[in-house]
Amino acid sequence: MSDRIADIYGARTPHTKGTVWPARVDQFLDPGVDEGSVDSWVQSACLLCSNGCGVDIAVKDGRMVGVRGRATDVVNHGRLGPKGLYGSTRWANSSDRLTRPLVREGGRLVETDWETAMGRIVDRSKSLLDAKGPLSHGFYTSGQLFLEEYYALAVIGKAGIGTPHMDGNTRLCTATSAAAFKESFGADGQPGSYTDIEHCDAVFLYGHNMPETQTVLWARILDRTRGDDPARIVCVDPRRTLVAMEAERTGGVHLAPRVGTNLALMNGLTHELLVNGWVDQDWVAAHTLGLDDLRSTVEPYTPEHVADICGVDPEDVRRAARIFGESEAVLSTVLQGFYQSHQATAASVAVHNLHLLRGMIGRPGAGILQMNGQPTAQNNRECGADGDLPGFRNWDNPHHVQQLADAWDVDVMTIPHWAPPTHAMQIFSYAETGSIELLWISATNPAVSMPESARIRRILEGDQCFVVVQDLFLTETAELADVVLPAAGWGEKTGCFTNVNRTVHLSEKAVDPPGEAKSDLDIFLMYADRMGFTNRSGEPLLGWRTAEEAFDAWAAITAGRPVDYTGLSYDKLRGPTGIPWPVNKEHPDGTDRLYADAVFPTDTDYCETYGHDLITGGTVTEQEHRAMRPAGRAFLKGAPYTPPHEEPSDDFPLRYTTGRTVYQFHTRTKTGRSADLNRAAPDAWVEISPTDADARGIAEGDWVRVKSPRGAIEVRARVGDVMDGAVFAPFHYGHWEPAAAAGGGHDDANHRLANELTMTVWDPVSKQPTFKTAACQVTRLRASDGPAPAPTTGASAPAERDLAPRRRPRPTQGGGPTTSTTLTETPTYPLDPAQEDS
Amino acid sequence: MPHLATYIGLADHSEQTLADSFRTVAEGHARAADVFHTCRLLAGWSDEHRTALAPIIERYGEADVDEPERLHAAGLAESRDGDIGLLRDLQDLHVLATLVQTTWTVIAQGAQGLRDHELLDVATSSNAHTARQLTWLNTRLKAAAPQALIVAP
Ligand code: SF4
């Protein structure tokens, strides 16, 4: 029995390079439920981060009572992390679920029936379409719905209404990943595979605190670094995370660049590869474009120059570059430290450049994982609920648009393709001025998660825009809506989703949703029916009634595209494991990694984008693209470093950066309702370095005020392992609080929202908001009666180990008992290169 | 070479007008965060072109034009309001940047004729930058146009 709050990763199963990752089955059942009394186990995958671990849901008396990892799944080999174990099912039985629709009457939200609620939406929608046309409508969705739901929404938005104003909160978490792929390789699509972990010599983690975002993936890496012939770790992060410590342990490097200077560091690493000749010249000549421009772009970035900009040791830059340059196989992973920071796309593209220069792509161990934050972000990108066209089609290519018009049997002019899709921040700006008058928000909580939250609240509560929210709970966002629709959640509906390395899972319905709650798919179909959306033959535009029919329709339109689902069906997905796309006649069992043949989807007629200027975001035209004759070669694209938009000043001398903790997910809608998880990280805090704390008279646990030009929060301080000059705040905490028994009841609930301080500014290419470079000041308010409520297990551990007893945090622990069973015989995993060889 | 000097003066002058106008638009549309930041960045590029040109002006002298009003375009003294205002402002910037670009094209021709490598370098690299300014303006115009034309309040 183990407490997986204290022991986040569980026992190690170390193994040697090139051998298969052993299987271990992790399981958690609610207190009082024993395994023998479980009525059924229902196949699914975990929906609490982008890793997508295969699970079975335990059902007893019509309730979800626990989870068990699927030993045969290629993603997790049976393992689950704390969020998956303790957070998957608890929220579902929570007494504050939304069970009936709500409408605003006299300023208050009151319960009503579906007829009334949907009637109001449809009335408003029809009258707006008559008066102002499709551009009056905006849709803002999630990274947590199912593929079938995104696809339904995409068809409604693009072919039913015809609005370009569609985006998801994926814009906040993974837009840069998609944008970087498109710039380098011509289309979205994760090149690498998790199996690269077993075969690499080094893992570079760029702005990716994997131990707290994808715990099972980190466990997979630990099983390499703690085994024979370990991989070395290189960590790029301003905090001393567990990754940084593993870098020190394995003889790698921890680079802690100043917040906002990632691109300068990347240019330095590129410079070192070039000057030391760590370049596979033949491969580069055959498979890439742009070497000369890249060379001249990075020429000024000597290690010394980089050291000046980034505040790192020039020798560390050299050492990191040497590890990259001399390894046979490097795996790189990238996340929010790059995506949500300054020059996001250019810095992420620079990671691709390093791999391309060394020809390290498309073979086991040599891989790239541009990570996602949310579990189904990938599907949002694929299906086009984020504004892209379904199937990685190019909005600027008339043939691609025509393919969709034919598939949907609508006039091609209905499909908005005259300009790039409107990104989230712009959608909210249009809603602010009343240019968009109907904004439909599904399964996300922008009042907490978007930058400059005071402004977002104003937009949502104002009269200028009619706001529809569909969610599981009355979130901070739903409270401000005009109509609230109760949604069924994970385990209460059927659908598919795809994890960060393209692995598609089917998640089956295990129990009925509470009250009158409906699946998001049924809600969208109900709206489409009531709106009377039809195709040119007069048939309903969305002809399908079930999730499976929606899936088949989706699979059909992916034919011939990089994201090919045509070989997948619900039946096939009911097998032992999730399956990575493309799955088609050529690859009937799926594809472990892309670009094994070094042919990239850059052909002008095939690519998803013609590309952008990485500095301005200006678009490359079709003619310009054609003139370059990419023909399957990847692009090496570089850009010079420019200083962040907001530099520290006398009034705001510190740099503010937001982030995550291992025990909470997103805005805590689910994890906050699991007492085991919530008690481990019950309330907000900020981290400040010992030097900066001393200068301000701040001791561990003191109440402090953190202020930027846009707003302030008052929370407790953790004197921690952040670099001097940087301040870290977790973004999960809005004003919602669970019951005291679950670790709720904090008096700072109304002044702890990290996004009060962040800026409305975004990357020019990916349009991802920059959450990590605001300037701020921290001042001490008063002492508190204990340490900060931050966990001690991850990067938020206190810097000083022997604090006075009053200030010493209790070690984070107290999760309910779970079991872990290591299998003596490892199952056979399809496509696993470690097993193919043997 | 009186006419080349005239054109060098025109480049200097029109880059300055463009830089000032970018800044005017940045301030005037600061609520559109990307317009604010990108216009300031692009103004900086025009400043750089003038800095690079400065030593050449020393060599050739900067001749003023006989009929300046026929050659110099007026910049944007102030920005316009709202979504339609932004559209118009971006269009004006586009006109100004086009003048800058054709000026550099003409100068590059002259520099080749004179085998003046320094001037050719400045003209070519500035021209490439100007092309990127124009590309961004085009991209942003396209994105802003439908909403501004059809539904802006
Ligand atoms: S790593 Fe992610 S997907 Fe796996 S159990 Fe944890 S939260 Fe769930």
UniProtKB/TrEMBL annotation, chain B:
What's the protein called, per UniProt? Molybdopterin oxidoreductase
